[in-house]
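Example with several molecule types.
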Amino acid sequence: MNLILLGPPGCGKGTQAKILIDTYHIPQISTGDILREAIKKESPLGIEAKTHMDQGSLVPDHLVIKIIEERLKQTDCNRGFILDGFPRTVAQAEALDTTLSEMGSKLEYVFSIEVDDEELIRRLTGRRVCRKCGESYHIEFNPPRQDGLCDSCQGELYQRDDDKEETIRNRLKVYQDQTSPLISFYQRKDVLHSIDGIGSIEEIKKRLLNIINT
Ligand code: AMP
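Resulting structure tokens for the full complex:
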């Protein structure tokens, strides 16, 4: 099964992707995670990506398209994949179509997870991420058992640089301007499903699985 989780930053794409991995045993491919890993390693990709990410802007299309083309060719994608945070522009979506048709594959579901801006800002400013395993928490809605420490691996929790309020507002604007046109792009292809992203993690999971199972 090949699917895309589309939606503004903070809508819960990453959380739902992790649930879908466990249910369908297909990999989650997050361009954000791949780029943050490249920044940690200080690779040429990471150095270039950092300047864009720190401002909440998009990393240039040609860089992320190359990442995805290479990633989709890996054997763990043979049974399908969950794209989280890609595509983010129409050019990326068109490149994805080309790559998939070259692979003899196609998209089955695009889920657009909808959450209003004020709720997104509340979620993102309170988000804390484990430095070691990437697990995500929220200081108010999903706090760790021990302040500042990951429940799963005891790693240190930190606030992503781009989760500061000013950068978040830019990321939301970038989403409106550059990514939201993908909603009509995928509507035209008849693969888009809009999901109400307000509710518990469990409720949203049910909404997604209901669509897949019917
Ligand atoms: P995310 O973890 O998905 O919120 O992504 C964090 C940041 O990584 C974004 O604000 C962008 O700067 C960059 N990024 C991630 N995915 C993409 C993409 N598909 N295209 C361009 N930039 C991206």
